[in-house]
Protein: Glycosyltransferase
Amino acid sequence: MKSEAITSKQFFSSSHDISSNEHSLSNPVFRIQNESTHKAVKRPSSVLGLIVLIGTFILMITGAFFVYQFQADFDQFHLERINSTWGLPFLVLTVALFFFQAGVFLYNLYLFYKYKPIESVTDDLLPTCTVIVPAYNEGKLVWDTLLSLADSDYPEQKMQILAVDDGSKDDTWYWMQQAKIRLGDRLTIYQQPENKGKRHALYRGFKLGTGEIFVTVDSDSIVKKDTLRNLVSPFVVDEKCGAVAGNVQVLNNKKALLPKMLNVSFVMSFEFMRSAESMLGSVLCTPGAAAAYRNTAVFGCLQEWINQTFMGQPSDIGEDRAMTNMILKQGHHVLFQKNAYVLTNVPEEYTGLYKMFIRWSRSNVRENIMMAQFVFKDFRKESKFGARLLFLNQSLKIVLAYPFLLFMFYLIATHPLLFLSSTMLGILIFSSFSVFFYAKRYSVAEAFWAYSYSIFYTFSLFWITPYAIITANKRGWLTRGLTEKVS
Structure:
């Protein structure tokens, strides 16, 4: 049975009945929906989207046709490769990697079907929580974020909301002040004297927070009414739980082609992969958009986290992955809550997207190195197999980035038609799981964007990981100051 499709309209509608109270805190949240509706000129036309999808299928079907037509050439190529000096070892390695990846996928599929989110506990069992919202140049978005948090179905007396302006140069501080006027004592706001980075803004919130649980929410994100209580409930049920990841989906997925593609990718990444990771108690990254931490776990690594360096330079990216790593290192479980939805904005243009991916990939390289230092030690009493398998799977993708990049260039130079046709057929085959997964849970029509995203990533973002590896020591948020943010 299909579950609720979290489009922005349905998301907000399910959160609150706007007609019930004209003074409801959620009214400004609905304003986002209404404004985006009136700004139709910014949306890509449905004709353009249809052209992209049709073009996607033409490319994949053409690729499959040419694989069939070039079968003799493929056989000759494989024969030449096997008979070459490096061909047989490469073939053995490729087959071994294929079976390893297939095994990991089937294991993840098994874990996914076993996974169930922890149901929300009653009000009297909910712990006190401090919600920390760091913000930099978010403008009015921070107002919407704070009001959506205040409208949460969480006991007021148990929830503290802290917003930290990280030296913004726009009107972010003004909108924080307006939210403070609206919410009164429910919200406390702080302003950093200068921009020091998201990690330092969160650090200030951690030091000032009084809750048993810390919840971090990005200032361009909107939470559903029951998100907070669903996000916090695992700490009550599982005393070994140190952190919980929320379920991130795309807020601006109706406004541009890239967000449409990313929305399908996010669902696959969170609802499939993190569900499997959660069954192993080893979710590798609690996202900045919405995550929760036990305060004792945070204080157990806070100084190490704020003073973290990489190759002698202070770390100013990957604060969420770093915190997750350090909490795993303490032996805690890190879980995922599929029922803790948060909608967040993603880049709508290529420049913003590749810079975001570079930042994520650099963090991934850094934190995999850190994870290698403890994952094969006795870091927890329970089974460590899952954490080690996830680490090995991620590490292989990093280690093999350059060999496969070189092999790709070799194929393009020597057999361009074989490369293009086999790549298109491969996308048709392997991306079909993402399509079926999204279609079953949400929308069949939107699911086809998984094919378009795979083609887009393969031909325009393939360089991200190799580039991130050789520039892993570079600092900088990269996407700050870009104009693709939703306003």
Notes: The longest strand covers residues 333-344. The two ends are 36 Å apart (CA to CA). The chain has 21 helices and ten strands. Confidence is low (pLDDT under 50) at residues 1-44, 483-487.
